[in-house]
Amino acid sequence: MLKAQKVVPLDxxxxxxxxxxxxxxxxxxRRNPGLPFDADLIESLRVNRSAAERRAATLPGRRTVxxxxxxxxxxxxxxxxxxxxxxxxxTPGRVHRLCAKARQPxxxxxxxxxxxxDLRLTVxxxxxxxxxxxxxxxxxxxxxxxxxxxxxxxxxxxxxFDLRVKEIEASAAAGARExxxxxxxSHALTGDWRAVYDEMRAFRAACGAVHxxxxxxxxxxxxxxxxxxxSMVCMMAGADFIKTSTGKETTNATxxxxxxxxxxxxxxxxxxxxxxxxxxxxxxxxxxxxxAYQMLxxxxxxxxxxxxxxxxxxxxxxxxxxxxxxEHFADGRYSAVHRHxxx
Length: 343
Known about the structure:
- It is a single chain.
- The chain has helices at 4-11, 39-44, 49-62, 67-79, 92-103, 108-113, 133-139, 161-173, 185-189, 193-207, 224-236, 255-272, 287-300, 318-331; strands spanning 81-84, 125-128, 147-150, 178-182, 211-215, 241-243, 277-279, 313-315.
- It is an alpha/beta fold.
- It has an 8-stranded parallel β-sheet with strand order 7-6-5-4-3-2-1-8.
- The two termini are 29 Å apart.
């Protein structure tokens, strides 16, 4: 059986301490004040694509964990989930059910059977459209689980600028504690990095005390060099997190693009001393995928980036597969998907 104390050496964090409060979400992280725009720095950024792809391709085969250690890593992944519903047919009822899952993401009987029944496990956040912010805030009252709202004309980011700013303000006023904004990809694709910076700076100001995640949409940017430059520009403009994708692009999160973004986070941290969070999103649907991103985070940035204040995984169906893997660890067999409903 998995013992609670066995999670401690792996995680070195909140999930390994059943006596700790529920995940201390991103309010613990120092805000990113940003930097003045530096065109020379942005222009100097280069990426060796073949090296990045080679490094990413070797990761899943080189880093694997099994048995109780795998279960511990998966529990940590749950604590870093941005549990998401961004469907056209979302309703307040569906959001309420999703929030109930966010409060108890893994069945209590499963946690008890693997020896961590006293672990107060929740997801990192619940991510919804603006219209569903108020129902989500009401459903999560008293839990300390933040609501994240996608904003600025999600997913394309092409609505009028003043409306994008007002949407941020409205979501913050409705109780969202995190805002996931999207950049205007046309600025990035035409090399107008100053325009990307100015918009991001305005979005950051509109967020006020609310943390902001900048979605750079790696699948739309064309090159890894653009991924690097967009990541750096958004951090210079004050983004607290950088995020791979909306989940609506043809290509969403990939390990090579994530590697490039993590290297930019490292470089920005060396320049400023500021820790920036990272959120891969889109297409991450299996426990194996989640662990690959966790291991990439640990190798590139270290243990602090395995906590929900610096790492999130944007997903909707991932939690179901993680629960099935945990049940397999407990019982030695996989259960049917319907035994682990999302909402």
